[in-house]
Amino acid sequence: MQRRGSTRQAQHKCGMLHLPVEGLPSSPVSPKGKRREMPVTKEQLKKVWSLPNKGSFQPPAEAHHLCPGCGEPAAYRLVAELMDEMNLRERAVYVAGIGCYNGLGGYLNIDQMKALHGRAPSVATGVKRMLPDRFVFTIQGDGDLVSEGLAEALHCAARGEKFTTILVNNTVNGETGGHMTATTLVGQKTKSTLQGRDAAVHGGPMKTAELIAQLDGAAYSARGSVHSPVAINRTKRMIRRAFEAQEQKLGFSFVEILTMCPTGWFMEAWEAPKYMEDVMTKYFTLGEYKVHPLLLKSDAAS
Description:
Number of helices: 10
Strand order of the largest sheet: 4-3-5-6-10-9-11
Distance between the termini: 36 Å
Number of domains: 2
Structural class: alpha/beta
Largest sheet: 7 strands, mixed
Shape: globular
CATH architecture of the largest domain: 3-Layer(aba) Sandwich
Helix content: 25-40%
């Protein structure tokens, strides 16, 4: 597990935890003149391992490293904002999938783990079962979750695993250069379907939010987007509900977020939001597909 904000790396020696940290009691000197590390108390470790109080999102001073017009930074920003608003950051564990979005994890001031391609839900299951008090979530692309690891997510939802999965769906494998995924639209041109996706050869795109909603263990399933301010605000409410489902231990929660990829769509950055609204959302309908009744009661109470 990657611990963000740690001032030193812990070391295990002879079964005892030792941690040389500035400000802690000085270590005794051995007869040979070498300094010996002293065991660290639990209270001292709390200070060492506490995350710095800088908020959940730490964007770089310059522009992000992804392509112009990419919608994934907006999705990450929504997650980070909710981490702070819901006071989740100190006990959150983010399990990252594999994709070009993965580098955005460096902007999140949250404890993180990296999973093999498509396996983030399985890793998240292990974390949540061993540390049930932690707030656990995955962020995965359509290539990672739908093409590579759909079975992982479906079985987690069927079992009602109590963590949250966020799918950032731009209908292409951006990291590999823009190849077809299981969500690529029929007729859409990609690096591996230059004539457009052919339903007779490749089948049709998969609607993951609808699939998750059919499973008994799923407490919440929805699809949002980041192509406009209105859509972004609506998507943030969806993510909040998904996080609340986990906090209330209601079962598996899932949010699919449609994101722009103008590079993979062979268009200019300014054209991508309109393409999403005019084309993508006609097939991938936005909205909530399953809402646990207790979430509705919570909304009424607030």
